[in-house]
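Structure first, sequence second, as always.
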């Protein structure tokens, strides 16, 4: 198992063959996140070895993540930072962020979002293994993954509006895609907690299991995903991701294009 250094970012990164595991690793702060966490996530995405097929995101301790570090509202939370303002985004408090000009502030947010967006790449399947609280940025990190396996004690909560913010870590699109606009409005604007049974019913989780079975459930799912041909899995994920944005005819055309490539790849040598 190879381990990458993510020292001081509140993250742990481990690889085991085709599986990469990212662990939110500040259990004493319920895995609260900062700009430093999101820069580190982006770097992991930048440097992810090509052979990795499954990325699992989990939290150390009883909570997946309590969301942004509340210290960002008042002070620098003290984790390692990304590059300083002269080099680009990275300072870890909202007061410092607010001092930026509009373009720099947007770049800072874009850099944070980059930490989440790569989890949708067709070449990988990302799985959030969620137990306990997944609040705000924690909920959005789970939403950034392709699949969510939850423990029966899960508590999803989109708390940003209650704190005067909007959810901006790429969470609004997958949330609306899954639950629809009315339910998303209701959930976000009340900051209420969604538990395991409701998450399953709404499609926010693919599976709910007892907390002590979460690790095994993720392992079983990962093994099933790895048993499928990689090129076919990548092409199929690409097709499925594009489906909501295409007409039936355009989707049928996309299927033909992908299948022609598959058929050639599988049978060209038998001509
Ligand atoms: N930021 C900074 N510190 C935190 C955070 C956070 N988001 N969440 C928990 N902690 C700290 C607590 O202050 C406490 O520290 P201490 O031991 O030094 O006092 C420690 O983590 C443990 O927290 P508890 O509250 O004791 O743990 P408990 O399991 O009882 O509750 C819970 C967990 C529900 C997550 C609670 O800590 C909480 O409500 N946290 C704040 C959640 C929040 O509002 N997040 C922002 C969401 S918005 C966004 O992400 C954009």
């Amino acid at each position: 198992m190879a381990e990458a250094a993510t020292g001081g970012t509140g993250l742990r990164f481990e690889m085991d063959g085709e599986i990469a595991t990212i662990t939110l690793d500040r259990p004493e702060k319920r895995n609260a996140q900062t700009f430093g966490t999101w820069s580190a996530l982006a770097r992991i995405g930048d440097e992810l070895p090509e052979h990795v097929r499954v990325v699992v995101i989990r939290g150390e301790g009883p909570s997946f993540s309590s969301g942004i570090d509340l210290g960002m509202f008042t002070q620098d939370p003290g984790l390692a930072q990304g590059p300083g303002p002269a080099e680009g985004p990275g300072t870890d408090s909202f007061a410092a962020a607010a001092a930026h000009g509009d373009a720099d502030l947007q770049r800072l947010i874009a850099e944070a979002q980059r930490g989440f967006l790569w989890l949708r790449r067709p070449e990988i399947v990302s799985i959030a293994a969620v137990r306990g609280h997944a609040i705000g940025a924690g909920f959005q990190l789970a939403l950034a993954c392709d699949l969510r396996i939850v423990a029966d004690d899960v508590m999803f909560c989109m708390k940003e509006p209650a704190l005067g913010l909007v959810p901006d870590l790429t969470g609004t699109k997958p949330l609306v895609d899954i639950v629809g606009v009315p339910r998303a409005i209701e959930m976000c604007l009340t900051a209420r907690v969604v538990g395991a049974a409701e998450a399953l019913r709404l499609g926010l989780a693919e599976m709910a299991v007892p907390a002590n079975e979460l690790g095994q459930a993720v392992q079983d799912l990962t093994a099933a995903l790895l048993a499928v041909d990689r090129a076919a899995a990548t092409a199929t994920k690409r097709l499925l991701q594009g489906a909501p944005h295409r007409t039936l005819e355009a989707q049928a055309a996309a299927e033909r294009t992908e299948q022609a490539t598959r058929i050639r790849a599988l049978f060209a040598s038998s001509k």
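Margin note: The chain has a mean pLDDT of 92.
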